[in-house]
Amino acid sequence: MVDYIVVGLGLAGAAFCGTLRRNQKSFHVISDQSQTSSKVAAGLSNPVILKRFNLAWKAHNLLPFSKRFYEELENELAEQLLLDQPILRKFSSIEEQNLWFEASDKEHLHQFLSSQLLRNTNPDLNAPYGFGVLKGAYRLRTQEFLTAYQKKILAPDQFSAETFDYSELQIRMDHLEYKGIRAKNLVFAEGFGVKKNPFFNYLPVQGSKGEYLIIESRELSEKNALKSSVFVIPLGNNRYLVGANYNPVDKDNRPSEATKIELLKKLEGIVNCSYEVVGHVAGVRPTVKDRRPLVGTHPNHKNLHIINGFGSHGVMIAPWVALELFNSIEKGTSLDPEVDIHRFLSLLSN
């Protein structure tokens, strides 16, 4: 018997498995990789919401906690997965500059927002009003991280590449069984796939599709991430990630031509150089109406649990939330009320 079955190996699943390993717990992972939002994510851990200059949820705690978590895994995997990533917020007016300066004077934002205006020195960028510099952000190479985790950390007998069949799950008093695997607990980390989960589909996961373009430009030569109407994030080798959009209606993982046109139009307002589109990816983020994660134990099944609902901040949120869930299961500690699924208990009977 293993301690846990974990369904899903995106950022949520990998973070929870990492927490299990650190606490010497055995586990088996089941994943069909059908949910692509983690693998196509930009991986940018950004402590400030740059549209309105607000501090991201629990950023003061989550940013350093998550960075330490990935640094330890990076050392274990012996791959460079984590990059310090300065972000330049492009200003579109004098008024935006003034709003930035006001925000940078606030105590809770001062460590992240530079009070110095950065003039544009890149002739291939359209930024007459300059930039504000956001400090402390990092980028996780999410696809490389998840691929390396599966190949280097998980033993062959720890991983099943298949779609989870809920009808095969047998729940007992003190354990559960799935296709010959016996476990004490099962954790669902399915992302937007939770909509098909008969145990947790009552939770209000709405979903927001995001798409990125990958462009190649030998002229642009920019090492900083740029934020305007979209992000432009350097990937190395003259390639950049451009996006993402937020589409609450479309719920499939296929890139759309309409979004490509939308992103290119926004990119044209940022760069003045030639480029080639060499890739286009999409995924549906598991968003929640109150913009908080979904974590906890099923009200009627003490050995069924969920970790989900990270939205667009999964890189920064996942490690801390994984520890919250682990401590709740193993030590009986109370979950942070903001993430506890019991806040939606009234929806279970409806």
UniProtKB/TrEMBL annotation:
Give yes or no: UniProt keyword Oxidoreductase.
yes
Superkingdom of source: Bacteria
For this protein, the record's InterPro entries field holds: FAD-dep_OxRdtase (IPR006076), FAD/NAD-bd_sf (IPR036188)
An example GO CC term for this entry is: cytoplasm
Segments forming domain FAD dependent oxidoreductase? 3-324
Pfam families with a match to the protein in the record = DAO
| Organism of origin | Maribacter flavus
A GO molecular-function term, please?
oxidoreductase activity
Protein name in the entry: FAD-dependent oxidoreductase
Keywords, ordered alphabetically: Oxidoreductase
